[in-house]
Amino acid sequence: MTDLSTDFTRTRAAFHLPSGVTYLDGNSLGPMPVAARDRVAAMMQDEWAQMLIRGWNEAGWYAQPRVTGDRIARLIGAGDGQVVMGDTLSIKVFQAVSAARALRPGRRVILSDSGNFPSDLYVVQGLARAIDSDLRVVEPEAVAEAIDDDLAVLMLTEVDYRTGRRHDMAALTAAAHDAGALTVWDLAHSAGAVDVDLLGADADFAVGCTYKYLNGGPGAPAFIWTHPRHADAAQPILQGWMGHAAPFAFQPDYEPAGGVERMRVGTPPVIALAALDAALDVWDHVAMPDLRARSIELTEAFIAQVEASCPDLTLNSPRDPARRGSQVSFRHPQAYAVMQALIAQGVIGDFRAPDVLRFGFAPLYNTAEDVSRAVGIMARILREGSWDRQEYHARAAVT
Amino acid sequence: MTDLSTDFTRTRAAFHLPSGVTYLDGNSLGPMPVAARDRVAAMMQDEWAQMLIRGWNEAGWYAQPRVTGDRIARLIGAGDGQVVMGDTLSIKVFQAVSAARALRPGRRVILSDSGNFPSDLYVVQGLARAIDSDLRVVEPEAVAEAIDDDLAVLMLTEVDYRTGRRHDMAALTAAAHDAGALTVWDLAHSAGAVDVDLLGADADFAVGCTYKYLNGGPGAPAFIWTHPRHADAAQPILQGWMGHAAPFAFQPDYEPAGGVERMRVGTPPVIALAALDAALDVWDHVAMPDLRARSIELTEAFIAQVEASCPDLTLNSPRDPARRGSQVSFRHPQAYAVMQALIAQGVIGDFRAPDVLRFGFAPLYNTAEDVSRAVGIMARILREGSWDRQEYHARAAVT
């Protein structure tokens, strides 16, 4: 176990944060770790350029997806050898749901909720059409009662990408298990944001991305976790050579590797993994309970200050911090224009249709000063109606 | 159209080639373009670090997969707007074959050959199991006669990863079409190696990787091409938000984007695409007929010199250059040890089980001097039997 003594002054200093910017959009794309640029340059020069093909063994590129996976495992309550990196989150959703569904061959229903990120629903729609399953989508509050004996897979994003509402992973997993179903948890807005405990919740599969709170850079690779009880039984539809038991034997037939490594598909993204590796260094001495405590401090302060000084905004997130992730959203009829005015004044959050202002609080680098500066600027914009007098042409940003 | 005046002295100088190394493994991993390291560092510093989330629009990250796709299109005989980047080659094989199969709903057979790269076969085995299809695998020479009226999809790698044997894309595509089937061509060992003409051959789908002859770096993103006649009809199983008609409308249901962009799935690998973009600059003034001519010169010289000075080796590639890609392989009972001895003396090719020595010739940077140096060293090793007196511990390299 790493020695954990969380020092948020140190972690904040580990990021490049442009001056004049209050960045509350780390739930969409984390900022660049100071060390990332040189780490990538060194990987390219010392490994790719010098070792050429030999880098696969000599520089450890081949093993990197599981080495990096082990670093992430600690942040999500998983064990060594249970997480592997690669592809994108959408691909990993496909793998996890298809593998879970195949473990419940007699059942056809995949249940999700309308607060799930649309891409997860798109992926499951495509999968369900191919493998003769039904995707059932209910309101987030109705998930528990929709679990019945037809259910094969419960597929949820733990923290809602718009509202920040956090599902009770342990309770819903237990309910799914009681009904004979398996769970797939998308940790896109959880990993690095809250104290995830996959093993403690007894979840079955989990997936996530690394470009949000884990700060791996735009398009950084995704991860997938399989509970050890399923790791050698899960049979993914996406069978690639890197998930083969003997990739370099070049056998004509697929034979899955042992454990979660069968969830590897193609050649790993080595350059991107170097950037992510530098980003994960920042987490080395961070204790997740400290992270969660700081996250709650920041979001509680933000809600209190906004409600005190921005009467036109309506809270769109759960008020109870136990039911919330590390982001907060508010509604305003002119949310798009208000967000553009905020961005023009250096406060970067984002807009989600039709009327949502979304703010992410990343405990590694956001501070109480970020909270008060953002609220002060937003209060002035709303008071003066200055969002109404400007022209904004920016397009919607990426979640 | 770009002005094309191929200057191979310029293109060779564009790569970092370690001194003392004769690199004949660009068919596995291309060397680093000199400009790539600084291009990636600039993207990270000027775009990610400075623009943060705004980079998706301001730096053009969102559009990058099709902008880069257009650069590759020229190299494979495709048109603008027909190629899009992302994921890995295995994922793209899955997308192309599933889309082609869905366009032939009444037919169950997917035909490939035993010279195909194993991962392509693994992918199709997994797909076929899921969607109730049959994968039929025949010898490369038997493909033409195995095409019949049950065939839905002919899925071939144009250039064999071991022997370098090149299929006749136009003839086999015509035969498949005559039988009512569609074709998927894997260009892993073709793109940047030979004069591919997808539109001329009237192919249906094509996929490829960019870390071999296109020199995009380890794990560089893959590409997929759809013939315009299928681009708006192809319905991929992998439905991700980046392939949605309106990704940022966050609609609950998937609606495919027009054209090949529906083959996008998740968030694009922006850092890796920056490295690839630098690599594609090298191709700007290269005429593909010049490339093909130089490739044939190099492989012809290599075969002639090896056969003159290495009597223990047996040619494992077609002798007719028209039936060969840009790589040559020879067989030797102790191929593994011989390759280790070659590598120890700075000649990097690779070994393929059980007895194959494989050498790739990348016209952009390999020269007649590379050919004669490699053959000279190999002839001495074989004459002296010095491969027999060394201890080799290296593990097999990645294809």
Automatic annotation (TrEMBL), chains A, B:
Catalysed reactions, as listed in the record: 3-hydroxy-L-kynurenine + H2O = 3-hydroxyanthranilate + L-alanine + H(+); L-kynurenine + H2O = anthranilate + L-alanine + H(+)
One of the Pfam families matching this protein, by short name: KYNU_C
InterPro entries cross-referenced by the UniProt entry: Kynureninase, PyrdxlP-dep_Trfase, PyrdxlP-dep_Trfase_major, PyrdxlP-dep_Trfase_small
Keyword Disulfide bond: no
Example GO molecular function: kynureninase activity
Transmembrane segments annotated in the record for this chain: none
Residue numbers binding pyridoxal 5'-phosphate: 89-90, 117-120, 157, 186, 189, 211, 241, 267
Modification N6-(pyridoxal phosphate)lysine, positions: 212
HAMAP family membership: Kynureninase (MF_01970)
Function in brief: Catalyzes the cleavage of L-kynurenine (L-Kyn) and L-3-hydroxykynurenine (L-3OHKyn) into anthranilic acid (AA) and 3-hydroxyanthranilic acid (3-OHAA), respectively.
Assembly with partners or alone: Homodimer.
Family membership noted in the UniProt record: Belongs to the kynureninase family.
Record-given protein name: Kynureninase
Taxonomic lineage: Bacteria, Pseudomonadati, Pseudomonadota, Alphaproteobacteria, Rhodobacterales
Gene this protein is translated from: kynU
